Amino acid sequence: MAAAVSRRLCGLLRPLSVSLCSRTPMICQRAALSLQQAGPPRLLGAPLGAPACQQARCSLLHRVSALVPSLLQQPNRSLTYYSVKKGKNKSVRSVKDRFLRLHCGLWIRRKAGYKKRLWKKNPARKKRLREHVFCNKTQSKLLDKMTTSFWKRRNWYLDDPYVKYQDRVNLKF
Amino acid sequence: MSFPKKPGGKAFEILKTLPRITLANLRPEPGSQKEGKRRGRGQHGGNRSGRGHKGERQRGTRPRLGFEGGQTPFYLVIPKYGYNEGHSRRPQYQPLSLKHLQYLIDLGRIDPTQPIDLTQLVNARGVTVQPLKRDFGVQLVDEGADIFAAKINIEVQRASETAIAAIERNGGVITTSFYDPISLGILIKPVPFFTRGQPIPKRMLPGEDMVPYYADADNRGYLADAAKIQQARLALAQKYGYILPDISKDKLYHMLAMRKDVRQIFFGLSPGWVVNMPEKKILKPTDEKLLKYYNS
């Protein structure tokens, strides 16, 4: 729908601005998106108005959207308990991208900042940051709640570097 | 003493005089069913109804899981790393230990006088393969290599060197072969496939990355040279320190030498044939183009 709106916008603009829009279609589309978010009635009223002021608005939005693109796309971080299509739980994608669950229940992660500003960190600190670390009990319970049972299954990958860590050994309690 | 005892006895006679069982006559065993908590009723369920005192907890406006009051939450502070990258493209092989294989043979669930295939293993409920979970077959694992004592002709998808040595030491034959996911699904459940009425498809050749494995004689790959496999058998026997038994003088030599064609899925059935289960007939294609396709 946003794409159709942006196409309509570009089509109604004058030849001068058409060339501008054709060179930067992405920014034009994003401009249309932001206009929609700002206020649909304004957008519907505007197209048949003065194309010159539209030109000015388009360029202003180009400048603004280049500086603050995050305003146009807000992330959705909630956990879905009943999905719309299947009515099932969903996993949080960010957890899948950052953590690895071993079959024994432990979660592995990287240390935050292991590739940032390394020039100012001493070698011992860099070595500590390079290590892969376990998560503690509360963190593991949180991550288990954020993922479905598919991520908890036993996997037998070929040449898996984590195969020997999937089971606990010599654990006494 | 001489009277034959009636089965059930007195209880049966009493049961004959009782009325018919209806819903009105039935009741669960006292103490078997526990009543659920009823909130908002009585001294214990009422008042705040188990929700605590004021705040987001009582009012049901707690934020989403993982939220830390606006501070970047733990699960976002940690940088991304490709732990799970491409996990759905990684082949998986269900492990089968030699100990378990020996157990199945000893119990009679697997017949060592016939070639052992993935179909036989699944029929014997020795392994469970799920092609939809990126399983590409079965791998033989070292565990139980020292106690293994069975002469078999086995075909798996991956095998460790120790497992190959253990099988050949006992005079058996092992082959590693590749099954693409569709062929694998057909192989593990042949009867549902036959009821579908489709012709048996050709087994596809392995992808680029797997061809070197299956063309290598050390892995007993099905694409490798027969002469090189014989040399590899001798070399392995020398490495592990056992005398390689000569299978050509064996009674079951014919069975041990049975191997599938590169494009074949089942022993005795060629690609292109249609199996009619209810009428117990096999239909073979006669058209030239079909024959050319299925024989290529």
Helix content, binned percent of chain B = 25-40%
Q: Give unreliable regions of chain A as ranges.
A: 1-6, 8-53
Question: Which quaternary structure do these chains form?
Answer: heterodimer
Following the backbone from N to C, one meets helices and strands of chain B in this order, namely HHHHEHHEEEHEHHHHHEEH
Low-confidence stretches of chain B: none
Question: Into which percent range does the helicity of residues of chain A fall?
Answer: 40-55%
Count every helix of chain A, treating DSSP H or I runs of 4 or more residues as helices: 8
Major sheet strand order of chain B: 1-2-4
Q: Could you tell me the number of beta strands of chain B?
A: 7
Q: Major sheet of chain A: order of its strands?
A: 1-2-3
Structural class of chain A: mainly alpha
- Gap from first CA to last CA of chain B: 80 Å
Rg from Cα of chain B: 31 Å
Q: What is the overall shape of chain B?
A: extended
Overall average residue pLDDT of chain A? 75
